[in-house]
Amino acid sequence: MRIVVVGGVAGGMSAAARARRLDETAEIVVLERGPYVSFANCGLPYYVGGEITDPGALQVQTPESLRAALALDVRTGHDVIGVDPVARTVTVSTADGVDELGYDALVLSPGAKAVRPPIPGLDSPRVSTLRTVDEALMMRARVTGGAGRAVVLGAGFIGVEAAEALAKAGLTVTLVELAPHVLPPLEEELAFYATHALARLGIDVRAGVAATEIEHGAERDVVVLGDGSRLEADLVVLSVGVRPDTEVFERAGVACERGAIVVDEHGRTSQPGIWAVGDAVVSVDAVTHVLRPVPLAGPANRAGRFVADDILRPATARPIPPTTGTAIVRVGDLTAAMTGANRAALDAAGIDYRTLHLHPGQHASYFPGTSTLHLVVHIAPADGRVLGAQVVGEDGADKRIDVLSTAIRAGMTVDDLVDLDLAYAPPYGSAKDPVTMTGFVGQNVVDGTLRLWYPDDIEQVVTEALVLDVRTAGEFARGHLNGALNVPHTELRERIGEVREAAAGRPVRVMCHSGWRSYLAHRILVAQGFDSASLSGGMETLAAALQMRAAAPQPARA
Ligand code: FAD
User: Which residue's CA lies nearest to atom 45 of ligand 1?
Assistant: First the structure.
């Protein structure tokens, strides 16, 4: 049997390696267009920034090491330019000409390619994407060769990593993002912290604006933005998104949806004998069940393994699971991580949800060095199922997002989060871990013990309700909502008459710093017969959301 794999990095090489481990006799040929296989694309930004110093470390394997360890026939510089699914052949272009190669099973893992928007001047030699080892080598050479100013177009994961790397390497960096905030999949109230972390790195963030032109210069290029700003650049990193690299295969009759290869739960395409994995395919979202590409390394590697199983052990091969899209990125001194559906995805899918905001300590407050974690968790109001979660913080965001991702994968509810036994000693966490606390808050919301109001409700709240601020007088003096009544939560029982008088029959909307004291106050108010609700995440969340909205560009008036 001959298995031919197109694309020799994440998904393709996982399929090839697993195939060899299952079948010692199969002929396994890997065709890779570029000069490298099995390279660490996720490590490229860290080489550009100088944290990874050895370029050789980016090459996890070579054709020689793969031949020695796995008897794989790895051919670099082999570009697949055609497929005949009936004759079961691929057409391959190499430096020596064009050739044909037959297959019994064909695995497509061609990945994605960078989106190149129609910006005049994008063909400047100072503009580059960051997707290959050669591009990383070139950027590092520019950095060490005296480049002083960089403009990064696109503040998704790779754009943020590139901006961080270049800033750490000493360049003056501007990060430009068309969406209203950096890391667009992150909720705005958490993007607030990422924006500030980028500012602490000295990065000038321009959100809500597009690059309209790149003027080529003798010494430097100038990136012109839609708002008229002109940014000088020795280096421009283009990172505005990716799209599946599938034209060849679509032309050959492999069914695609908006350019992404459609596969079944075993990675089989519409053409018998052809499987596909990785950034080039659509995956089923575990929460919304919509089909979408998920350009992440973990799902690509896993799917490669599963596809090899389906080729060689079809009777026992497990289906490729829907993905929760779990992703994480370092942003200076912070980590931002997300899993499952965000607000936009839930809204688009018409799924009802409630959002929880928490700001717990990463570990026991009495142990030195604790920092705050900011959590946004979406749950189903009917049964408390966890639908999506995002965590930002200096320390511990990674482990919380992995627990919450596991919870989503397992279909767990807020009750299940409470029931988890999580590792605890003071340097690592709290007896009531942030995940446990999420469960407690979620239980209270589902059973009605806690009723929440949100930053989105602010206009209605200030016009129709009494805002009761239960922070201390000192906190209140440092900033509060206009018209709010300040009664610290410890004095509320004694001063309830004052609240009744001020409310004058109106609902009471309670707030504090993070949502904990307002919850205590809410319970007192409910017992006293008030129509009460507590601000989700408190002033911390409200301030973050309102500041992000104030900073966002206003839509042009008609
Ligand atoms: P790839 O790994 O991209 O491999 C596709 C290969 O196919 C390419 O080498 C290409 O040259 C080759 N190819 C394409 N067409 C042909 C053809 N016709 N003939 C022959 N060869 C062809 N993901 C994470 O989860 N975490 C991260 O931190 C992370 N960081 C990243 C940082 C960067 C800079 C980049 C670029 C990506 C990052 N990713 C990260 C994404 C992750 O690398 C991809 O999701 C993953 O590599 C996809 O695997 P794949 O096999 O589908 O495609």
Answer: 296
